[in-house]
Amino acid sequence: MGKAPSERQQEIFKVVRDARDAGIQAVLSAVKAGKTIAGWEVDKATRDQINAAGFGKYFIHRTGHSIGTEVHANGANMDDLEVHDERRILPNSCFSIEPGIYLPEFGIRSEVNVLVRDVRPK
């Protein structure tokens, strides 16, 4: 609502979007390769992107959380900030990837929800 986003807002959105997409890609690559991936590794993929862009100190929460039928669930969280979550992302699990950058003048967060399916041949 309101005015078109400023160039600075667009710049920060692109950093957040690229971080979000790096998290998605980390999961896709692991699943396609039949490898296990833990929650901390997804967080690291997003956090590395934001750190590389110079905004690491403004990413102040974990990347995401397990999602169940009642929002949050007991599965792996995408977290290497609050805790080093070593729980594996299992087939048929759902979770969010939602990095954000919160500057003093504005903040941007972008969220996707991911459902992992077992893609191995039966």
Structure description:
- The protein contains two helices and six strands.
- 34% of the residues lie in helices and 16% in strands.
- It is elongated.
- Helix 1 (7-33) runs antiparallel to helix 2 (39-52).
- A hairpin with a 2-residue loop joins strand 1 (66-68) and strand 2.
- The mean pLDDT is 93.
- The strands form two sheets. A four-stranded antiparallel sheet has the order 2-1-3-6. The chain has a two-stranded antiparallel sheet with strand order 4-5.
- The protein is of the alpha+beta class and 122 residues long.
Write a brief caption for the model.
By secondary structure, this protein is an alpha+beta fold.
Can you lay out the helices and strands and say which pair or pack?
Elements: H1 7-33, H2 39-52, E1 66-68, E2 71-72, E3 94-97, E4 100-102, E5 107-109, E6 112-115
Antiparallel strand pairs: 1-2, 1-3, 3-6, 4-5
